[in-house]
Amino acid sequence: MKKKQRIFKKLMYLPLVLTLFSLNLRAQTPVERHGRLQVNGNRILNQSGEITSLAGNSLFWSNAGDTSDYYNAETIDFLAENWNSSLIRIAMGVKENWDGGTGYIDSPEAQETKIRKVIDAAIANGMYVIIDWHTHEAELYTDEAVAFFTRMADLYGDTPNVMYEVYNEPINQSWPVIKNYAEQVIAGIRSKDPDNLIIVGTSNYSQEVDVASANPIIDNNVAYTLHFYAAYTPHDNLRNVAQTALDNNVALFVTEWGTILNTGQGAPDLENTNTWMSFLKERGISHANWSLSDKAFPETGSVVQAGQGISGLINDQLTTSGQIVKEIIQNWDTTTTTGPTTSECNTIDCIRNAMETAQAGDEIIIASGTYNFEDKIVGAFNRDVYLYGSANGNSANPIILRGASATNPPVFKGIDYTDGYLLSIEGDYWNIKDIEFKTGSKGIVLDNSNHSTLQNLIVHDIGEEAIHLRDGSSNNVVDGCNIYSTGRTQPGFGEGLYVGSDKGQHDTYQRACNDNTIQNCVVGPNVAAEGADIKEGTMNTIIRNCTFSAEGISGVNSADAFIDLKGAYGFVYGNTFNLDDSDIINTGVDFLDRGTDFNTGFRDAIFNNTFNLGGRASEISTARKKQGSPEQIHVWDNIRNPSSLDFPISDGTESFVTQSCPVWNIEPCVPVEGNNEAPTVSFQSPTSDISLVEGYNLQIEVIANDNDGTIDNVKLFIDNNLVRQINATSYQWGHSQSPNTEELNGLLEGTYIFKAVATDNEGATSETQFTLTVITEQNPSDSCNFNTPSQNGLENFDNQQFSNVYVLGSGGPDLSNLRTFTINWRSEYNGLYQFSINTDNGIPDWYINLKPNITFQFKNANPELSISNSLIPNLDGDYWVTSDNGNFVMVSKTNNFTLYFSNDTSAPACNMLLSSQRNEATKINDDSNTNLKLFPNPAIDGHVFISAKNENLVSVKVYDLQGKLLLDQKADSTLLRLNISTLTSGTYVIIITGTKSKKHSLFVKK
């Protein structure tokens, strides 16, 4: 049962009139104004159903000792009265190696006493307060978290002020791990507090909200945590990630953000901060800035200048970042807007205003009548348009723009044909229906608009195209359109429907307009160019159940087909194509390879259409190869009236076409009695994608069958290059009976597509493929220099943390107190954002920022660094740097040691030789054609045998494909029985060393 809320004491001794007067003058507190917050779809609403976005500060780790203590009522009182703060976040430290036992796990009473000062002060000031379980590994303390939050819910669950953040920042934990933990804590909270807001952290430092949104927690008041830092430009992509989560209909809460780098350092980025704030405000997302502290330089994300304490906050002794944050919080209007609205419009101004202020769930209803536009506004890409919408709906709450009557639709009429799109949409999830568009340069243009629907629209008398899906617009549906009289000013560009952009425009517009569907439309007459033009760069375009008329097609700009297919995976079926006495049309569907090497001229299916060709059936093909070398074009089961051949003209098209249903077709290929059934084909060996080391020996076997005939041949391709065609029934390549046993070998490091194509006795084909990844040898180098200096620049280490360091050799530093080593290197920006060590004993400090103490060159060949004044004995000096299977390696240039930073629990296998010894080391012949043999391969039980001829075996080592040593067996004989029972099924690298030779190869354990 809810207890009665009691915030303000009664004023017992003042006259009643003065009391009322005083209360009227006092502004409402945030909690008085908004009450209990409730998730509704992807928004957080207040007690009045208004979208609510709070703004405030996050305190620093409560268990930290390197900042003044702001966990007190004085801080909260000041923020409420002077900063207009509606929110404060408590970052209660749980347990860290550096906290000296001051975290909650070791000192629960002290921590609870500390945070309750803030909670009580926030409630007294009418502010919202987040109680945050501040750790990167909350699942290790699940029982403690459940008990703590259950107690907090019992104490404070009757107040609308309190929110529970059950996991601050998971790092490498997967979402299922986080979700399992969170559900246990939420159950505890809900046992005492059934309705206050709960916030759950997400993977990768609370950034992967999109992953969480795909598998959300079942609770009616949960939001998901997003953290970002404005000066760290890779975080810009998080806006797209956040939008994906919102589109999946979950709510977000930014419980930490900074103006600076994600390291807490660097100069504030005001421009990108403002971009982020606009993003949050437009979507009604609340936020708390990290952090209210006064840490010393190089920490630049603190609000208060170093060491100034509470007086620094009160006296406005703020950092540059603090000044920016204060300005944002003071001027933040917590109410974003009301919920979805319905606008009924009968004027152009009303329509424009409603579209400009639209939000998810809005419905704009247009009264019947003609709307004659007399001016234009600016739309996408600064184009002149008559109507423009840029807001985003979502899957549950699209933005609807529709006519009031489907049978008497409103008419939008532009000024002329030469300039001005009638409708420009740049937002996602718009449903536009029951409207007529006429007289504009283009009719409807979607720019980077996704998941939108255009339904029951009439578009005519247009200068160029009627409907254009452009700039990455994907997953849209055009349904029931009626298009005619296009290309009035430019006939060669007067397509009815246009998807994507010409390759000459790909620098301006995103080319990948994918997964769009055009259905149930009537296109023509007097469509001057193709009825539909599907451009290069697009994929998975469906055109079905439409009617096309060729009457009035111009022939200008080679427009002599109903449809042009220039992308990949185009599906044209169930349509009716009427010649209507046109003498321009020369084919039904043109398919083209535009030479862009990206989704062009590949896998088009044209089937179950009807072509009414009148007296020109003998002149017009069903489909035509018009350009380049298209692949896997299938044309079948089309009806031609009068009855005639699909390809009556010999123009080479038939050599590019297969007249049967492909296995990848959008609809199942159903065998029809009397028709040929396509063959089946599969790889017998290997059966799936594989990885091999350079110098491999590969054999391939294919199985092909034909239920209603025979197999004519099977071809094997590597990256579409023919290896060999086999016409017999044993389909093997690289075997001992092959004409060239080395035909599959010799590929260098890289990824290759192996494709088998089976053709039956009637010419039908089927195909299958697998991917071969060739890698360089994964066995460790003879020495621990790891092939430095590297001929390439250092690969990216994106905020990578390592918990172990192995000092290989002698004379290196003592790093046994390492807790974590962090490197944040982005080659594309030539930016080293973090290079630091955390220790577990504070020697020489808890946190050691090495970045100011190094000079480096990582981007180009011979990457290197120099360290000075690190305060760590024997660390200063010059190093080559490299990456070894994702681990960070520093090889001393002048001393005999290597630093190997890794998360592996064992050191790498390598020999630490002196420089002179390296040059004198015995060289062993590495030749795959030696007398060292391994059998059986693949291994089918727990043992394999290794034999040697004319020499003795010395050692056998087995590695996984990531280079980790799994088995190391010494030997002194000519035959070794190796126990592999501990290995799981998979592919492994084996290194066999003899007294005279050495062999490396792959073997498979089944």
Your description of this structure?
The structure is a single chain. The protein contains 14 helices and 69 strands. Helix 3 runs parallel beside helix 4 and helix 5 runs parallel beside helix 6. A hairpin with a 5-residue loop joins strand 16 and strand 17. It has a 20-stranded parallel beta sheet that branches. The chain starts with 15 loop residues before the first helix and ends with a strand. Among the domains are: 285 residues, Glycosidases (TIM Barrel, Alpha-Beta Barrel), CATH 3.20.20; 96 residues, Immunoglobulin-like, CATH 2.60.40; 124 residues, no CATH class; 81 residues, Immunoglobulin-like, CATH 2.60.40.
What global shape is seen?
Answer: flat
Gyration radius, in Å: 35 Å
CATH architecture of the domain at 16-292 and 329-336: Alpha-Beta Barrel
Average pLDDT rating:
88
How many strands, what sense, and barrel or not for the largest sheet? 20 strands, parallel
Instruction: Name the poorly predicted regions.
Output: 1-26, 778-782, 913-929
CATH level-4 homologous superfamily of the domain at 16-292 and 329-336: Glycosidases
Question: Structural class, judged by helices and strands?
Answer: mainly beta
